Amino acid sequence: MENLHDLILPMLTLSLGSIAVNMRQLRASMIEVLNQDYIRTARAKGIVERRVLYLHALRNAILPVLTIVGIQVGAILAGTFVVESIFLWPGVGQLAVSSILAKDYPVVQGIVLLSAISYMLANLLVDLSYGLLNPQIRFH
């Protein structure tokens, strides 16, 4: 925890672009969902506005954002190579860059395999979370 301040700039570099895209999509989805009939029905029943927003609206509006997050995992994995090189942060990205420059192909292949597996697992988690967030999308 003593070097937590060293993580701030790399984390901001990797996350700011993704956060902007996700918030824009979430806003558009929330506007669309809040105009649906079931939201008006929930409000007419007298359900507290906070509960309507979080339980009814957000659960349906978050699905497109989850799809984007699953796709962005690949961009973030690729971005770590550059960010770790720029900020001289030792990690898999720095190892990949140094292995490419040293022509150490088995290490490069291992890192590519690790990145591909990470990307597939992230997309699997996104797909499984659809069923949790929206009961209409259950896996049979």
TrEMBL record:
SUPFAM superfamilies for this protein: MetI-like (SSF161098)
Protein's UniProt keywords contain Nucleotide-binding: no
Molecular functions (GO terms): dipeptide transmembrane transporter activity
Organism domain of life: Bacteria
Annotated family: Belongs to the binding-protein-dependent transport system permease family.
Name assigned to this protein: ABC transmembrane type-1 domain-containing protein
Residues in ABC transmembrane type-1 domain copies: 1-130
Regions that span the bilayer: 6-23, 61-87, 107-133
Membrane association type: Multi-pass membrane protein
